[in-house]
Amino acid sequence: MTSYGLKQRLSSVAVYIFLGVMAFLSIFPFLWMIIGATNTTSDIIKGKMSFGEALVVNATTFFTQVDAPLIFWNSAKITIIATVLTLLISSLAGYGFEIFASRFREKLYTLMLLTLMIPFAALMIPLFMLMKQFGLINTHLAVVLPTVASAFIIFYFRQSTKAFPHELRDAARVDGLKEWQIFFLIYMPVMRSTYAAAFIIVFMTAWNSYLWPLIVLQSNDMKTITLVISSLGSAYYPDYGAVMIGTVLATIPTLFVFFAMQRQFVEGMLGSVK
Amino acid sequence: MNRKTVALAFAGASLIAITAAQAAEVTVWCWDPNFNVAIMKEAGEVYAKTHPDFKLNVVDFAKADIERKLQTGLASGVADGMPDIVLIEDYGAQKFLQSFPDSFAPLSDKVDYSGFAPYKVALATLDDKVYSMPFDSGVTGFYYRKDLLSQAGFQPADLQDLTWDKYIEIAKVVEEKTGKKMLAYDPNDAGLTRIIMQSAGGWYFDKDGNLSIEGNVALKAALEVIQKIQTANIFRPAAGWADWVGAFTGGEVASVTTGVWITGTVKSQPEQSGNWGIAPIPKLTIEGATHYSNLGGSSWYVLAGSAAKDEAIDFLNEVYAKDVNFYQKILVDRGAVGSLLAARDGEAYKSTDPFFSNEPIWQTFSDWLSKVPSVNYGTFTNEVDSVVAAHQPELAKGGSVDDVLKAIDEQAQTLVQ
Amino acid sequence: MSAISPRRLKPRFDVNGWLFVGPALALIATFMVFPILHSFWMSFQTGLGVRLSFAGLKNTYRLFNDPLFFTALTNTFIFFLVQVPIMLTLALVTASLLNNPDLKFRGVLRTAIFLPCVTSLVAYSVLFKSMFVANGLINTTLIGLGIVDVGIPWMTDPFWCRTMIIIAITWRWTGYNMIFYLAAMQNIDRSVYEAARIDGVPTWARFLHLTVPMLKPVILFTTVTSTIGTLQLFDEVATITGGGSASGAAGPGNSALTLSLYIYNLTFKFAPNYGYAATVSYVIVFLVAVLSFLQFYAARERKA
Asked: Which residue numbers delimit the ABC transmembrane type-1 domain (chain C) (predicted)?
């Protein structure tokens, strides 16, 4: 019994060491970013690893060069609209493909997965022409529209739906619930952890998206935070101090979302149904 | 539609009418908020003094971002959504002019180009028409740490007429005496190769724009220098731009050979004031070799589809081709060396700089500027450059330069089409 | 598993099915399929910028005679074969360790490990470059610990350059994949574990014989998406090596040139040849399609 307990303790020490190292390696660059925000550009380039005194200077540079409220509002607007619409439309489709499978839809599904495979760089020019025809150049709608029906998220929801208990649906049908009621009243609450994961991923992707917003957004007042950081970082002598301020600020919303959502991973799915 | 929306729609319509009656706004895309963007805004203010209606809207994007936006927009064949004026790096000039014919407005009818550094005009000329308003120059200099070199026994007078072989010898002495490397060098970047090649009037292409790799004397000589620098181990390896900059601002190396636009960065370390000097870059020992070259630099272009085309051209012409005082201001404020040769007669160009021990460095640079050999950057500089950069690390292993040239030639042939 | 996996295929017209998938399909048709067809048409044209002309199969011919294309193809495969298994195993192991309800500091550890994929690309590239330079943190540490005598040539040797890229991608995306596993683990009935534990089934066996099979749909999902991600690898190679900048190679001897970076270069860095770039894109489509099919097939077979 004692040897079993010792073994147990040793293995749990190993687990903590492993996770601790993983966590340290993961967190290190983030710490470096925060430290960087307090250092001058030349110290940042030298890789200085201690806090400096340039925080106020860096923040002043950042906030005088960047209309921060407007830029963050633009990013927030795009991200929130994109996240809500993507979760709704893509989860409907993922559920639909899995539950109402038919031979024809199965073929469409395969075709849809194929669209994931083409590199975005190859689509930018045709997509830009299309947006032009819709008169959507330099609008936030043009940023959001192509991402809303995400084959990637549909794929994810379909795979996760495979774990959705069949009995629940059958029971709901017996109770006389309509298909849309089953989806909104049963499926959505039950699949909370799936939605939470998708929420984090979609939010993060939308918040950090770069290439497409860059192409369709034309004026300063429409830009997102990612675009602003990119142009700050491209000077002949980039002010990395200001870039770090921007980067830290730009990371906070996603981190906040992660903190808020991770509760959903802890509570099991079955608990929520009872 | 209720009354409120009708009123709004009406207000919107009349707003459009007012805008149309006013002078059109000129939109500019350029990169670097502290350099090009600030300079362009300054130019707008200068022009607005005589043209009160003039409105300039400068939008800043990263350089690579501008190229992406421009290419996507031009490829889609639509004029609106594009700026009126755009900044393009000189190496990419012919690529844009040839890939998107009729997309840029020729300026040669309006602008007198005789006052500009000839190589800047040549690079934006296509079919006898000039398309650019030449802007900042990348005339090169050899920036060195006076303190470190004198510690190694070399005085400024010893450094004025170097060859690359002599440079490498000096480098060895410097390391021996001071423990510092002579330069920071990124083996994955072909910038130094280009500087050396152009200083002897060579490029990846001949005068007609045809690929010229094997049998290119200047390129071969440049690669030989690159090989010696690597095998003599006189460099501190750098990975990317920030690391390269950090090496000389951090005092790790004794010199830097690059374009004049680096001056502001060199001066960003006030504690090194008085310790820096400039000299002409070392030269090759082949025919046509000079001490003068160029790295980077960019020019303004007006889009042919622009609604405010005439205004944009007039604006550029009045400020950038004529206003000598403007060039003094951007030199003092931003350290920008323009390509208008007449600018060097202004006060600022004659001033001395305490950071460089009161040498008249601007006067010196503008002298060198007029002597930079003209070459044809061609349509495919970036293609060949990426191939050359990829092969540079091979040279470090001591392989034959001829073999490397052959390999470069083979890969470049497929890209240049 | 068997209670939920077999899906009855319904051949009859089902209005509900269409209502659920309709909005998504309409959007995908407009914003994906249409541009894809357009770019497919472009792959039969050649020329610089807007000076395109019909070329038939000329682009395909050029492809087979293009040494850089083969360099990019080889590199992409190296990254795919080495990196995807390492990352997914690491993510799966981490997720199952973090899923233990008795573990302390779970929330903190989870968040920490998720952090890398949130970090902005700009900061990420500056940091990785500064850590991996010749006298950077990594080499100093390795020399200090006595693991190596001289610094590793991360930026000048093809092998080490690729290793660096693999470390960078793994660092950035392990936590991301972990999220999918963690979410899926919530759907597993805890009592099964408890029963196995009481029966004395060791941890590793529970992991291999309980966790992995139950997560199969999501493992398939992450495998396919990671395959797509790696075959389209762009960010890391463009920003950490000089591959994305105007002058610069994608690592020594183009050792980090990937297909996506090559497409990007053909479209934006080089004199733009949209037709040829589109042709190279369809190589990726073809490869991913074949690989995904194999992955689906492998996953399906084991079900029986």
From this structure: 73-295
Distance of CA C229 to the CA centre of its chain: 3
Count of CB contacts below 8 A, A vs C?
Answer: 285
Low-confidence ranges of chain C (pLDDT < 70): 1-14, 122-123, 126, 242-249, 300-304
**Predicted ipTM of the assembly:** 0.81
**For residue C84, is it within any domain?**
yes
CB B321: neighbour CB atoms within 10 A?
Answer: 18
Q: Give the Cβ contact number of residue B55 at 10 Å.
A: 15
Sign of the C-alpha dihedral computed for residues C84, C85, C86 and C88 taken in this order: positive
Instruction: Give the dihedral of Cα atoms B398, B400, B404, B410; nearest 10 deg.
Output: -150
Q: Which fold has domain A64-273?
A: MetI-like fold (1.10.3720)
The per-residue pLDDT for B168 is 95
For residue B205, the domain's CATH number is: 3.40.190.10
The whole-number pLDDT of residue A266 equals 56
Which regions in chain B score pLDDT beneath 70? 1-23, 78-80
Q: Which chains touch B (3 or more CB pairs under 8 A)?
A: A, C
List, for residues A4-50, the tens digit of each pLDDT value: 566 677 777 888 898 899 898 888 878 888 888 888 877 777 667 78
Q: How far apart are CA A134 and CA C27, in angstroms?
A: 14
> Lowest-pLDDT range, A62-71, A163-172, A227-236, B90-99?
A227-236
Q: How far, rounded to the nearest angstrom, does the alpha carbon of residue B355 sit from its chain's CA centroid?
A: 23
Q: Which residue of A has its CA nearest to C43?
A: A122
Contact criterion met (CB < 8 Å) for C50 and B75: yes
Residues B116, B155 within the same domain: no
For C278, counting Cβ atoms within 10 Å of its Cβ (0-12 exposed, 13-18 middle, 19+ buried), the class is: buried
Task: State the average pLDDT for chain A.
Answer: 82
Chains that touch C (3 or more CB pairs under 8 A): A, B
Beta B85-89 vs B298-302: how paired, if at all? antiparallel
Q: Which of B89, B186, B380 sits opposite C246 (nearest CB)?
A: B89
Any B CB within 8 A of C170 CB: no
Name which of A128, A219, A233 is nearest B76 (Cβ-Cβ).
A128
Assigned domain for B370 exists: no
Counted domains in chain C = 1
Name the helix (H) or strand (E) containing A158: helix A151-161
Best residue in A139, A223, A234 to probe B by mutation, most B CBs within 10 Å? A234
Range of C148's domain? 66-301
In a domain, C200, yes or no: yes
Give me the helix-helix angle, B401-415 and B381-396, nearest 10°.
150
Question: A120: which chain C residues are within 8 Å (Cβ-Cβ)?
Answer: 232
Residues 6 or more apart from B397 whose CB is under 8 A from it?
A: none
B160 with B270, same domain: the answer is yes
Least Cα separation, residue B33 to chain A (angstroms): 7
Helix C106-114 and helix A2-36, axial crossing angle in degrees, nearest 10: 50
Cross-chain residue pair C180–A197, CB shorter than 8 Å: yes
Say whether B72 and A215 touch across the interface (CB within 8 A): yes
Can you point out the beta strands (E) in B265-404? 276-279, 298-302
Q: What pLDDT is attached to residue B6?
A: 43
- pLDDT at residue C248, as a whole number: 61
Which residue does chain B place closest to A41, by CA atoms? B246
Report how many domains make up chain B: 2
Q: Report phi then psi at B23, rounded to 5.
A: -65, 140
User: What is the pLDDT at residue B283?
Assistant: 93
The answer to whether position C16 is within a domain reads no
In whole angstroms, what is the distance from residue C188 CA to residue A272 CA? 13
- Name the residue of chain B whose CA is nearest to A216's CA: B69
CA distance B117 to B88: 17
Burial bucket for residue B79 (CB in 10 Å: 0-12, 13-18, 19+): middle
Q: Are residues B278 and B178 in the same domain?
A: yes
